[in-house]
Structures are given as structure tokens and as C-alpha cells.
Amino acid sequence: MKKACIFFSIIIFIGILSLSFRKTANSSDYLQCYTKRITILKENHQKLLQIIEENNPNSAEGLKKIKQQIHLTRISMKEVDFWARYLEPVIYKKINGPLPVEWETEVFEKYEKPYKREGAGLTLAELFLEDERYEKDSMIHLINNSSKALNTFSADSVTNNLKSFSSFYLCNRLFLLNLATIYTTGFECPDSTEIVPELCSLISSVNEIYGAYNKSFPDKSLPVTYLSIYKQAFAFVEAQPKQFSRFDHFTFIRDYVNPLFIINQQLITNYKVQSRSFMDYTLDDKALSIFSKQLYTGQNVKGIFLRVKDEKALAELEKVGKLLFYDPILSGNNKRSCISCHKSAEYFTDTTESSSLQFNHMDRLKRNTPSLINTNFNHLLMLDGNHITLQGQAKAVISNKDELNSNEQEVLKKVINCPDYRKIFKELLKYTPQETEITFEHITSALTFYYAKFSNYYALFDKAMNENIQIESGVKRGFNLFMSKAQCATCHFAPQFNGIKPPYISSEFEVLGVPQDTTYKSLSNDKGRYLVNPAPETMNAFRTGTLRNADHTKPYMHNGVFINLHQVIDFYDAGGGVGKGIKVPNQTLSSDSLHLTSLEKNDLLVFISSLNEKIEFDDPPRSLPASSNKKLNKRKVGGEY
């Protein structure tokens, strides 16, 4: 019954969406451009099916013909990518899905459990050709599924969107974000020799889309300034070497893609563009750079105080949050605080050992302490994605017997027994009218609001992109390696360089084959994501974390097995666990060596260092609020261990 209700709600939503986009503009040129390209894509799919049926991939000639048609079909797919990826993201994956099986972990997991989705399409078809288990019937089934999915793009629910200038600018925004993250990295193109040619074709086709759109919507057209920069971007790409590893990603994004994104954002505001799509769920229309901390939001850092705008009230909330963060009153023995594991001087992590001490003051925690900086740019929290809110994560830490070993009732009682805490929270109660008494949620919300402020800082790389400041050549070389030969950008996406890719509503989990120790004799026994969502694909999978401030957040990997970034890069260069000789059946990281040179590894380290943020950490509080329980007045700022 619940699933049925969700289904009908979605149907109603789609209907409202299509109606909201029905405008009176003459969109004939724009619509004809779309219809023509969908027709060509369908024809190429049918031709691909025919060639697969008529040719044997085990023969050199047959393999060549199939690959040629796959590439032709991919080019025609790129010519509709501008619309397809935004208007029908689920169907798009059936045409060009990168994985055979995908467990959806979108932002909507906050409302429903993850679900399994079978992959299909051209990327898988090309990979399938190289598989020794290739079967013609399976290949035909794969492409047939894609061909059937294409019919969706001719439906009124899709084509009606093309009658709206709003949908154009929202499609364009996603296109520009993907230019900076997806299209140039090989994320969906298994043949690296085709990445730059496909990019050229894509940019050329979008240029034609722009022309058709401007004819159909002259009063909401792209301005000359935008088209001029786009023309320069096109010329830049065409002049680039066709070798993927030699493409200048840095200059392309800084000088062309980001300026285009800024103009498109301004047009979204000026034209009062409205979205009815979940694809825009987290994106902020006011963000004037891809490298703005305002670009997207993953978490509500205010918690129960979400609607509070008053600056004085927020200052009080931050003040009490800081006190609580350093106060061992949150622990069962009043000797341990948040700062015990998340040390501010160490970028709110613990760099001393592979993991922090347990509550018993003897053993070590199973996992490495993650930094709290930039956690608000994740939809799912913890390395296994076990929590969906920062406040829920705080609650779990407080109640965990190995961490703070307390409970909601005990913490609330002790906090309220401190007159200073009680006074501040009483004053803040008026901002949460749904609650008439101080609750545990008030406490966790103060905590998350306090430490979230340290996520608002920028790095040298951001300034290079936003302000065009000069940086050392190693940063540029390292970034270009990051985006190409080193294959880092297929998992770590700008701007946070974590596993959240455009439109920033999903969390990537990867199986890397992390070892138990550096002897590489066995795989880590931590099952990771499998503990939250049991499935063959999720065994030993972990959420892809940010590379920001990586210089300051050692040790690395979920178990802290690597003590420096040199070891991390060597691990990836070798092909992960499989490349090191460990048996990992479901490893998602390529097991092939990257063949990085010493100079290239150093350039990668230089780039990663450019992601260090210039954070201003504050000093610990001088004292903690007194309690009416005199025994609690012996507690120390920051705890005892």
C-alpha cells in the first residue's frame, strides 16, 4: 500500500510538472531539434542491434563493426544528453548506465530504503565485448532494454518540458556541472581514446541546441556574452590534443565552464526560472561558482532550529554548541567529550593512531575517526552511510557503548541541571514552537550548528578557480592527472572532491579492496555498506570521502591502515586490493596499474595540498557551565581522554 501511494504521488507530481512547463512560447525550432535527434538515436540503436545479430565479436572484423556502431550510437546519444540526463535521469541510465547493478543511494534514501537497479546501455555493451563470457543473446537483451527505454523520450511528459524556458536553463545547468565533472573524465566512456572526440561532438551539438532555443524563446534567450564564451570553449576543446591524458582540464574549467555556469545561474535568477524536479533538490540558484560552498547542501546543520534567521539567536546557538562539544557531560562517565576524538587542532579528526580510544580507555575503535569538516556536504553519513542526519549521527555517538556510552535521558537531565545551559535553551525555545520543553534534539542541533561553521572556508584551488589567482604549475599538472590518467575524478567529484556527483543528490560507495594491514595478506574484515544494506555489491563498500584537507586528516582509509598520502596513491596506482594480490570479487576500482611516474605522484600530492582550506580554529572555552550536581563540577574542558 505504501509503495502504491508513493507511485501515484509520483504520477501526480509528473503531471503537475508537465503542466507547469506548458507555456505559450513558439518552441517549434527547439522541439524539432530535439525530435530529430531522438529519432536518429533510435535508428542507431536499431542498427546496432542488427549489426550485433549479423556479426561475430570473436572475429576481428565482427568486433570492429560492433565497436564502430557502438561509437556512432554513443555520439547520437551525446546529442540528446543535454535533455535526457535531466528530464529522465532513471531512463538515461538504461541507455548509458556505467554499472551492471546499482544500488540507488539518492538523497531520497532519507525517506525510503535503497533499491536495486539493473544497468543497461552503451557503456556496459562496450565493456561486455571485452568479457570472455560474452553471449550474443545477452548483448541483444542489453541493447533491447535501451531501445525500449528510448520510447520514454517521445512521451508528452518529456516533450512538454521543451515548451518551457525554465526546463532549458535547468538542463543547461546540469550540462555545465557535468562538463566540470563527468564528460571529460571517462566516468561513462570505457574507451579513453573516445573521451575527447565525444566531448567535441557533445559541445558542438549543444551549440546547435542553443541556436534552436534562442530562435524559439527570443525574450528569454542566452545573451551574446554567454554565447561568445561558449564559442571560445568550443574552440579550446577542438584545439586540444585528442589524447585524454593531455587534455587541459584545469584551464577548460577555470576559463570557460565556470564562467558559463555563473552566467547561467544569473539567468536562472533574472528570468525567475522555476523547478519542479527533484534533480534540483539540493542545488542553490544563488551560488555563483561551481566552487562555491553554497552550490549544494547535503545536510540541515541547524536541526530543530532550521527556521531560525535571527543573528543573535544563532550566535547563542553557536556558543552553547561549542560548550557542549567540549563538555564531557555528554558521556556516561563525564570524562569524554566530542573533542576527545574530533580534535579541532587536527581538523576535527584524530591523527595520533589508526583509530581513537574506545570508552573503556584501553581498546581502539574499529574505524578511523572522520573529520567533521565538510560533513554537511554528504547526504549519507558515516563511512557506511548508516545515518541520514547530522543530529542522528550525534545521537548515535552519544549512545554508542564504545564511544560516549550515555543515553538521551541521562544527557538531557545533566544538561538541564546546569543553570547556564538551561537558561540559554529556555531562551531558544521560542524559536522552536513545536516544542514546549527542552529536548535532546535541541542539544544535538546546537552541536551540529557549532562544528558546521568550519565547513565554510575555501582552499587555494578554489581561489584559483574563482578568482583566477596564479598557482604553482604542479597544482595544474596534478589536477589534470587527477581528471585523466590517475582516474581519481571518476569517484571524487568537484567541488567537494567526494562521492557526490551532479546534480548532487547521490552518494557513491566504492569497493577498493582495502587491506587489513600493509602486508596485504588479507582484506579488511569490515563489511562496510553491507552492514546497512546487505547485497553482494555492497560487501566491503565504503562511502567516497572528500579529499579536502587530506594533508591534515591522516591516517587514511576506513581502518586508518595508511599513515601518509604516498601510501594511498601507491595503493591506487597498484590497482587496489586486487592489484596487490588480495581476492576481492566485487572490487569497483580498476585492478589495472595506473603506471604513474614518481613525478606524476608528486604532482597529485601538490594538487591535493591545494585543497587544504584556510580554516580559523577557535580556542577551547576557558570553563564549563556549573551544575547543581556538585559531583559534575569536577569535569574538565575537553574531557580526560
How would you briefly describe this protein structure?
The protein has 641 residues and is mainly alpha-helical. It has helices at residues 2-20, 28-54, 60-87, 89-96, 122-129, 136-150, 156-159, 165-181, 195-216, 224-239, 249-270, 311-326, 390-399, 408-416, 419-428, 440-452, 460-467, 473-483, 565-574, 576-579, 598-609, and strands at 101-103, 116-118, 509-510, 542-543. Helix 2 (28-54) runs antiparallel to helix 3 (60-87).
Task: Explain what the structure shows.
- The chain is mainly α and 641 residues long.
- It has 21 helices and four strands.
- The protein has helices spanning 2-20, 28-54, 60-87, 89-96, 122-129, 136-150, 156-159, 165-181, 195-216, 224-239, 249-270, 311-326, 390-399, 408-416, 419-428, 440-452, 460-467, 473-483, 565-574, 576-579, 598-609, and strands spanning 101-103, 116-118, 509-510, 542-543.
- The strands form two sheets. The protein has a two-stranded antiparallel ribbon. A two-stranded antiparallel ribbon has the order 3-4.
- Helix 18 (473-483) crosses helix 21 (598-609).
- The model is unreliable at 1-25 (pLDDT under 50).
Main sheet properties? 2 strands, antiparallel
Could you report the average pLDDT, rounded to the nearest whole number?
92
Low-confidence stretches: 1-25
Across the major sheet, the strand order is 1-2
Write the layout of secondary structure elements.
Blueprint: H1 2-20, H2 28-54, H3 60-87, H4 89-96, E1 101-103, E2 116-118, H5 122-129, H6 136-150, H7 156-159, H8 165-181, H9 195-216, H10 224-239, H11 249-270, H12 311-326, H13 390-399, H14 408-416, H15 419-428, H16 440-452, H17 460-467, H18 473-483, E3 509-510, E4 542-543, H19 565-574, H20 576-579, H21 598-609
Antiparallel strand pairs: 1-2, 3-4
